[in-house]
Write a structure and sequence with these properties.
The complex is a heterodimer.
Chain A (H helix, E strand, L loop, with lengths): L1 E10 L4 H11 L3 E9 L5 E10 L1 H13 L3 E7 L4 E12 L3 H13 L3 E5 L3 E8 L1 H12 L3 E6 L3 E4 L2
Antiparallel strand pairs in A: 1-3, 1-4, 2-3, 5-7, 5-8, 5-9, 6-7
Chain B lengths: L2 E5 H11 L4 E4 L6 H8 L5 E4 L3 H15 L3 E5 L3 H15 L4 E7 L15 H5 L5 E4 L6 H13 L5 E7 H5 L1 E5 L17 H13 L3 E5 L1 H5 L3 H11 L2 E4 L14 E4 L6 H9 L2 E5 L5 H4 L11 E6 L13 E4 L2 H13 L8 H19 L8 H13 L4 E4 L3 H9 L8 E2 L10 H11 L5 E6 H7 L3 H7 L4 E6 L4 H10 L15 H8 L2 E5 L5 H11 L3 E6 L29
Parallel strand pairs in B: 2-3, 2-4, 4-5, 5-7, 6-7, 9-10, 9-12, 10-11, 12-13, 13-14, 15-16, 15-17, 17-18, 18-20, 19-20
Antiparallel strand pairs in B: 1-8
Helix pairs in contact in B: 1-2, 1-6, 3-4, 3-17, 8-13, 10-13, 11-14, 15-16
Classes of the chains: A alpha+beta, B alpha/beta.
Bound molecules: flavin-adenine dinucleotide (FAD) and thiamine diphosphate.
């Protein structure tokens, strides 16, 4: 099993997302992350899909995606040739000032930001590579993660 | 084209005419009143009122396969659209070009469980090549043009357009007949010349070349090129079910259909060849069977397909060629002409000749000892029609008897539900076929079970003067399932007996059709002649044995050389 990131330019029509996800469902492929956003071209959207599967499964899916009428462009993004980012918002327990201090130190060393704080919790934002976020979240579990939100990854190819 | 002010319904009709649509099969309903109102005034489009939407889709499908043009079917919202679904899935599985128009509730009511609302757009997404839900009247010209463009190019298929009532009723100023297409749709057609050159070398050097002709040969009208290549090369040709008709089956190089229910010789040849050129076929499991190591084990496999997603999907190939098979064949022929050295194919040609003759003798031996009434009736029918007809089939044993013993001479004359295996397909497909080529004899080879699924459309035939002939292999059973129960489930015939089947002769007569029963294959000639001479739609009830079996076959889990029931075959 491996993860592959596919970046797509798609027509900005209602139903495109349904068609895309239906295609994965039909072929029994698991999507680990899917993001949709506007892009530099009018009338088109960008989708970044991370899927898990065997090499041959992934290759089959890539061809099927290319077949969809509303898909204008398909690009395979290899991890070492792309900048990959995920955004994470966390609400972490900080029962006392000692804990709060520790959390703040970690936040700083990871390049994260405190977005809000109450007496017993802080809200943290971190935009990073998915793996780094995983590690940060693991650390925060130690203090107690009340809520976790991740946007899913987006990626851009280097020239 | 200048801007014009028209209602959505009028735009639809104008665009259909511009796409060359001459006939549509459909059933109206509340949300389609505007469209049918526009059709009422229209002489250029013949509308045939069907008695079930599934039949409308099958008829459009049959029309498309026979004529090579895009078939059109129409259904109303909700139940009309859901009734259509089986027919759409069927056509799409077999890559037949069909455009379906469905009515939808007014846009403001979508999603409210309005009367006769169903989410046709989401329901049909997985069974179409593409579909549209039109939200604005002014979008209609582009959508309709692209529906036809997408359905009829690349790997052909079904496109559905869902039309809300207000979109049809509203008036808009539009430019008709736009040729604007979608950036993401570029049907891949030109094959790579490096690959076609390599192919020519492999084929020239091969000693035992075999061409596997699939449905893509027929849909791309590449039969001439196929034949030239086979003859130039000295390659034998086997077909899939969908490829039947790609080469005249009495051609000395043709070994007939391969696969689970294929000819013994065709399967043998696949196992023995040293170069396999697969043309427009998707290597379905019914073709390859389950033991892939028996499928062309010694061969260099070349696969030509217009759909890149089919390459390496079911069978690993040595030389992939993505592109239109007609163009690829032209290239391969061109490269072959430049080849100086050819492998010695004389031993193979001798073997192919032997195999062809054995098979042909069997098929011509109409009353061969030890064969069943079903065998005999279809062989007799094949002899009587002599390839000069269009044969459609239902699904089951009847279909496989037809595939096995009905000899085609031309492409687009054998129409069968291959991928979906839809019982009830053959008869409405025959209606579409007869509408496409009214001068040809059209015969549906049916099973009693299948025919009962769509026989209400006899009314359509009578009303519209569409004289197709239904020949039922009446075995009082869901025969194919019964055959599996007999062979693989200890003869426990669980719910396959049809019990009190109707009197098909009286059923035909009740509709105003010609009906006749025949119990002996030798009597078929007269009955068939009377049926054709009656000029009416006809039902011929051929009584056959309940335990007739279509053999040989590859048992579940078996491979291409593991056929059972070969006792009746002369071994070669
Ligand atoms: C009861 C039953 C038994 C069956 N038994 C058998 C059997 O024994 N043997 C058998 O073969 N089938 C059998 N079938 C049918 C089987 O299920 C498949 O439908 C059939 O094998 C598919 O044939 P195909 O791949 O040639 O055609 P299709 O399914 O029509 O595929 C066509 C292929 O050609 C490609 N193509 C289309 N246009 C072009 C073009 N212009 N250029 C290049 N490529 C193109 C398409 O992309 C596709 O890959 C049976 C079906 C039933 C219901
Ligand atoms: C719509 C549909 N339902 C069920 C099946 C499963 N099935 C395949 S063959 C068959 C029996 C067909 O019986 P009949 O039409 O009498 O033909 P026979 O096999 O007896 O020639 C059945 C039920 C099917 N293919 N299609």
């Amino acid at each position: 099993m491996q993860t592959r990131i596919i970046s797509l330019l798609v027509e900005d029509h209602p139903g495109v997302l349904t068609r895309m996800s239906g295609m994965f469902t039909m072929r029994g492929i698991n999507i680990t992350s899917l993001t949709v956003s506007p892009c530099e071209k009018n009338g088109l959207s960008r989708m970044t899909v991370a899927i898990k599967g065997t090499e041959s499964e992934l290759e089959k899916v890539r061809k099927q995606i290319s077949n969809l009428i509303e898909v204008v462009k398909v690009v395979d993004l290899k991890a070492d040739e792309a900048i990959i980012r995920d955004l994470c918002l966390l609400k972490v327990h900080t029962k006392d000032s000692g804990m709060r201090l520790e959390v703040m130190l970690l936040v700083e060393s990871y390049g994260a930001k405190i977005m809000d704080a109450t007496l017993d919790s802080v809200i943290i934002e971190l935009t990073e590579e998915p793996k780094k976020i995983d590690r940060f979240v693991d650390l925060m579990q130690h203090f107690g993660v009340k809520q976790l939100f991740r946007t899913g990854l987006t990626a851009i190819g280097r020239d | 084209m200048a801007r014009v002010k028209l209602s959505g319904a009028e735009i639809v009709v104008e665009e259909l005419k511009d796409e060359g649509v001459e006939v549509a099969f459909g059933i109206p309903g509340g949300v389609l009143l505007d469209l049918y109102d526009a059709l009422y005034k229209e002489d250029a489009i013949r509308h045939i009122l069907m008695r079930h939407e599934q039949c409308a889709a099958h008829a459009a499908d049959g029309y498309a396969r026979v004529s090579g043009r895009t078939g059109v079917c129409i259904a109303t919202s909700g139940p009309g659209a859901t009734n259509l679904v089986t027919g759409l899935a069927n056509a799409n599985m077999d890559s037949a070009p069909v455009v379906a128009l469905t009515g939808q509730v007014v846009t403001s009511a979508i999603g409210t469980n309005a009367f006769q609302e169903a989410s046709t757009f989401t329901i049909t997404m997985p069974v179409t090549k593409h579909n549209f839900l039109v939200k604005r009247t002014e979008d209609l010209p582009k959508v309709i043009h692209n529906a036809f463009y997408i359905a009829s190019t690349g790997r052909k298929g079904v496109v559905l357009i869902d039309l809300p009532k207000d979109v049809l009723a509203d008036v808009a100023k539009v430019n008709l007949h736009t040729k604007e297409t979608f950036a993401g749709y570029k049907p891949n057609i030109k094959p790579n010349i490096v690959q076609t050159k390599k192919t020519a070398e492999v084929l020239a050097n091969a000693e035992r070349p075999l061409i596997l002709a699939g449905g893509g040969i027929i849909s791309s009208d590449a039969t001439e090129e196929l034949r030239s290549l086979a003859e130039l090369l000295g390659a034998c040709v086997v077909t899939t079910l969908m490829g039947k008709g790609a080469i005249p089956e009495n051609h000395p190089l043709c070994l007939g259909m391969a696969g689970m229910h294929g000819h013994l010789c065709a399967n043998r040849a696949i196992n023995e060849c040293d170069a396999l050129l697969a043309l427009g076929t998707r290597f379905s499991d019914r073709l390859t069977a389950w033991q892939l190591d028996q499928f062309a084990p010694d061969a260099t496999v070349i696969h030509v397909d217009i759909d890149a997603a089919e390459i390496n999907k079911n069978l690993p190939v040595d030389i992939p060629i993505v592109g239109d098979v007609k163009l690829a064949l032209a290239d391969i022929l061109k490269w072959l002409a430049k080849q100086k050295k050819m492998g010695d194919k004389s031993v193979w040609l001798q073997r192919v000749k032997e195999m062809h003759t054995t098979c042909e003798d069997c098929i011509k031996d109409v009353r061969r000892a030890g064969t069943s009434l079903s065998d005999m009736f279809i062989k007799e029918l094949s002899l009587l029609l002599d390839g000069d007809a269009i044969v459609t089939t239902e699904v089951g044993q009847c279909q496989m008897f037809a595939a096995h013993y009905y000899m085609t001479k031309e492409p687009r004359t054998f129409i069968s539900s291959g991928g979906l295996g839809t019982m009830g397909f053959g008869f409405p497909a025959a209606i579409g076929a007869k509408v496409a080529v009214p001068d040809k004899k059209v015969v549906d080879i049916a099973g009693d079970g299948s025919f009962l699924m769509t026989c209400q459309d006899l009314a359509t035939c009578v009303e519209n003067d569409i004289p197709v002939v239904v020949c039922i292999l009446n075995n009082r059973y869901l025969g194919m399932v019964r055959q599996w129960q007999e062979l693989f489930y200890d003869k426990k015939y669980s719910h396959t007996g049809l019990g009190a089947t109707p009197d098909f002769v009286k059923l035909a007569e009740a509709f105003g059709c010609y009906g006749e029963r025949v119990e002996k294959p030798e009597d078929l000639k007269d009955v068939l002649n009377s049926a054709f001479e009656s000029g009416k739609p006809a039902v011929i009830d051929m009584i056959v044995g309940s335990d007739d079996k279509i053999l040989p076959m590859i048992p579940p889990g078996g491979g291409i050389i593991g056929m059972i029931g070969t006792e009746r075959c002369k071994h070669v």
